[in-house]
Amino acid sequence: MADLNTTYMGIPLKGPLLVAASSISSMVDRVQMAERAGAGALVIRSLFEEQILFDAMQMEESLSVGGDSFAEALSYFPDLQHGDAQEHLMWVEKTRAAVQMPLIASLNAVGLGAWIKYAKQLQETGVDGLELNVYTVPADPKTPGSEIERTLYEIVEAVKAEVTIPVAVKLSPFYTSMANVAAELDRRGADALVLFNRFLQPDIDPQAEAPISEMSFSSPDELRLPLRWVALLHGRIQADLALNTGVHSGLDAAKALLAGATVVQTASALLRHGIPYLSTMLRELEGWMDEHGYARLEDFRGKLSQKEVADPATFERAQYVRLILSSDQ
Ligand SMILES: Cc1cc2nc3c(=O)[nH]c(=O)nc-3n(C[C@H](O)[C@H](O)[C@H](O)COP(=O)(O)O)c2cc1C
């Protein structure tokens, strides 16, 4: 029987399948279900600074309906303008008390001060690790890529200096030099890189002539992008690699581990098939390991990374050119 025990950012895990930050963590019974299904750990949905600011604004508006009573009401809520993460923090504490498995909190802030403040507050809830969800769409034409990268490094360095729990950085795949960004984050002490976040892409309804913003689940095809980058980075940086996006089966997890992932994170598959499906994925991974004669994850992790594979060009452009030319009919 295959042994699925592993370690992620120094945290011992019962298995390499993690529940990605998502609505799964919005209900305690779902988190408990994930633990029973064999999740190695669960990432709690992000604390969004923007949401806190938005809630505070709405509260201000509803208080201001009372006209003169607004100033008086504000004195009861001295921190109102800056919002309050209390509700989220209490939720994380409640989740912490409900399960034994490692929990990772997730944070998406805007200002550097807020990144530090909320990172410290999340650490105090007793979580085992922190994931920095640096989700932004840099749409300002005046902002060069170098500035975006500098801000990212500042956030990671500042948070690392303030917390003692391990810190993962969840990245988008849209950096000009992904390998360089990964190496810089590694150098600045990131304990893991989560490759990749999946951006919500708005659609357009041509009949209504209106943009549509709706949550969509990933497909297994989307696994290829993180698979390539995990394969390229494995063995070249110290930080652990969590492959995220497009993991829909135990065989997908096997691919990720062969590429060099320390762990995989999954959300869409569990939201689509139900949380107990996680145990099906684990059984499939175990079955594959038995079939291929692997007793432990270390026996094959990174076996197909770029460093180890016979034809390293597979993961780079040379292969692309060859494929394009050979597909000419
Ligand atoms: C309903 C839903 C909620 C999500 N919430 C968060 C979140 O709060 N923070 C975060 O970093 N990612 C969030 N994600 C993104 C997932 O963590 C994950 O990166 C993405 O879904 C790709 O993985 P998948 O292909 O397994 O779904 C969310 C995804 C879904 C579907």
| Spans of at least 5 consecutive residues with low confidence | 66-82
Shape: globular
Series of secondary-structure elements, N-terminal to C-terminal: EEEHEHHHEHEHEHEEEHEHEHHH
CATH topology: TIM Barrel
Mean pLDDT: 90
Strand ordering within the main sheet = 3-4-5-6-7-8-11-12
Number of strands: 12
| Cα separation of the termini | 48 Å
What is the CATH C level class, in words? Alpha Beta
Folded structure, characterized:
This protein has 329 residues and is α/β, with parallel strands linked by helices. The chain has a single domain, classed as Aldolase class I (TIM Barrel, Alpha-Beta Barrel), CATH 3.20.20. It contains 12 helices and 12 strands. The protein has helices at 28-37, 49-64, 69-76, 86-98, 112-124, 145-162, 178-187, 224-233, 250-259, 268-273, 277-291, 317-326, and strands at 6-8, 11-13, 17-22, 41-48, 103-108, 129-133, 167-171, 192-195, 203-205, 210-212, 240-244, 263-266. The chain has an 8-stranded parallel beta barrel with strand order 3-4-5-6-7-8-11-12, surrounded by 9 helices. A two-stranded antiparallel sheet has the order 1-2. The radius of gyration is 21 Å and the shape is globular. It starts with 5 loop residues before the first strand and ends with a helix. The structure holds flavin mononucleotide (FMN). Flavin mononucleotide (FMN) is lined by residues 20-23, 45-46, 106, 133, 170, 197-198, 215, 218, 244-247, 266-269, 271.
